[in-house]
Specification:
- By secondary structure, the chain is an alpha/beta fold.
- The chain has one domain: Rossmann fold, CATH 3.40.50.1010.
- 51% of the residues lie in helices and 10% in strands.
- It has eight helices and four strands.
- Strands 3-2-1-4 form a four-stranded parallel β-sheet.
- Helix 6 crosses helix 7.
- It starts with 8 loop residues before the first strand and ends in an 11-residue tail after the last helix.
Length: 145
């Protein structure tokens, strides 16, 4: 008997930060429960572009860590269940060919393309990505809004 495979979960950058910084109230109980279960069976994924975004946000003073940025990133990537989704050629190309009318932010485009290529559920609170998911172009958590 074939067992139904659990969907992969890709974290948007802000969800990854909130998870690592101990801010579950910002993520929401339902999504946090899914993330915790995913850690047990297959892990959760973070796009390689999220590392760049974290570093940019930190360098501009929009977020602050108690550790140097590179140490925070290394620790966050080493957390149990966290997997790095590399920026593969198919993801890079997909990010330039997203169906519908998706906005031009390259980070959001790459994260969205990563979710599409990996056929992953995207955990996000980004309004643009949520709307895109409502149009059926990327799988997002129902009820995350």
């Amino acid at each position: 008997m074939k067992t139904k495979q659990k969907p992969l979960i890709l974290l948007d950058t802000h969800i990854w930060i909130w998870l690592m910084e101990g801010s579950p109230e910002l993520i929401g109980t339902r999504v946090l429960t899914h993330i915790e279960k995913a850690v047990e069976y297959s892990g959760i994924y973070v796009s390689a572009i999220s590392i760049w975004e974290v570093a940019m946000l930190e360098s501009k003073g929009r977020i602050n860590f108690t550790l140097p940025c590179i140490e925070w990133v290394e620790k966050a990537l080493d957390a149990p269940g966290i997997n790095l989704a590399p920026l593969r050629p198919d993801i890079a190309v997909e990010s330039t060919r997203l169906p519908g009318n998706f906005h031009g932010d390259p980070v959001d485009r790459i994260i969205t393309a990563t979710a599409r290529v990996l056929d992953a559920l995207l955990a996000t609170k980004d309004r643009n990505i949520l709307d895109y998911g409502d149009m059926g172009y990327v799988k997002i958590f129902n009820g995350i809004k």
